[in-house]
């Protein structure tokens, strides 16, 4: 627990004023509670025994004042506790998202989106209680316990010894319970992540689910996860609910000891009935806050497990690190020098050497899994090679900051991403919308006509994933987005695969002028897409097995001849 607090301390300590307010709230509540007991004295002595009539007015008014103070204290404590908790949690949520979006691509590929969403939402919410309310509550309960225990020791040390001797017996089972609770909390949070993953999958794959009529199948899979989650939470409840009855049994044993030993002391005259009653009352009162404190320990396990899951992400170090220079000029030359890329044991690229100059259009072709996407992923620094160097304008890629490098690259990926925003904002993505530029980019991507036919033209809001668009329209928006960026390196990974030949040709013709001083790298499976490239690189099992113009390769490379058969057919 200390470890977790250490992690939260930098956040917690920034809320001195709010904690002070919580403390004031606690002081008001505790004093008002004490005053409630204290008012019993004038109530009995002055009002009933001495029959002072003015007390008939004073006591009820005092009682109301005391309860107002108590309520104000409670309110202040609750509101400021919540403020601290919610504020810290919302800050950590943003920091966690910032950490996640800046993680290596491999991390983002490997971790399910549902798992990451669950950490940002569910896990973080569970921390709130830990960072705000737990400490004040523990302080309040401990203070009350210490005061009451002090009081009973003061009343009768021998009896207090026998009454309290049973207390340590609770420690061992309590520790075991909290250990088990933490294990269960970990599993329950993992299960929660599974549920969110399942849900994101169900909603992202609705087409495939509907077309295969697998709704029932998905419901059963969800039921399986949900049921598991339910059972884990019940297990947690069986365990945590043990704390209260255990405390009560211990309290009963303590009380029995007090009655047996105290009763004998009363019989022998060592203790008056009044002293015995006061002792019994105070001893009875100790257990309420003690139970409260043990319950807090139970709840803390959940928050601690969640904070471990959250801080685990904060602790992951990126493998891809930023260089110091800024790539502010256009990409004029790309060199691969004996570059090898491996994913664990699998070699994705082997000994790749190539030199590309500004103005060139390079097409990558080859069998599926041949390494084409890996080649462009290296340029984007989604991965780093295990050996060899890649340089841009004569400097190793690793010398540049990733942001400055990527600002020079316009990338159209195989999967088209459309954000739930206006069409214009989708084209200008991340930049301010310049209407004329957006229209020009759309025109070059042969998408202006369809954009203008939309209800609000380029300001029409796109649906999530571009659900209201055809595959070809989505691709054209993605191409327009790349054009809008005016980057010096254009990477098109199967960017025109959903377009008909005529549209593709049209876009290619406009792009020719646009890319004449840039470097264009395109991956394609269609002959029409690649045959005009200055150079075609043929990939096979992670190697470039041939390169040259379309005509040259047709006459010299068997692999290309074989590929061109399939390229023409598709
Ligand atoms: N993130 C990754 N983790 C592990 N292995 C990967 C990863 N990305 C690619 N690979 C592997 O590296 C090899 C090359 O993949 P790559 O995606 O570069 O092929 P490709 O030529 O683009 O294929 P396609 O034409 O099917 O898109 C494949 O065997 C693939 O399984």
Automatic annotation (TrEMBL):
Decide whether keyword ATP-binding is in the record. yes
- Where does this protein reside within or beyond the cell? Cell membrane
What are the entry keywords? ATP-binding, Cell membrane, Membrane, Nucleotide-binding, Transmembrane, Transmembrane helix, Transport
Pfam families attached here? ABC_membrane, ABC_tran
Question: Which ranges carry the ABC transporter domain?
Answer: 334-566
Molecular function terms from GO: ABC-type oligopeptide transporter activity; ATP binding; ATP hydrolysis activity
Q: What is its main location?
A: membrane
**Cross-referenced InterPro entries:** AAA+_ATPase (IPR003593), ABC1_TM_dom (IPR011527), ABC1_TM_sf (IPR036640), ABC_transporter-like_ATP-bd (IPR003439), ABC_transporter-like_CS (IPR017871), P-loop_NTPase (IPR027417), Type_1_exporter (IPR039421)
Task: List where the protein spans the membrane.
Answer: 20-40, 55-73, 138-154, 242-261, 267-287
Q: Membrane topology per the record?
A: Multi-pass membrane protein
Question: Per the record's keyword annotation, is Transmembrane helix included, yes or no?
Answer: yes
Q: May I have one GO cellular component term?
A: plasma membrane
Q: What is this protein called?
A: ABC transporter related protein
**UniProt organism field:** Sulfuricurvum kujiense (strain ATCC BAA-921 / DSM 16994 / JCM 11577 / YK-1)
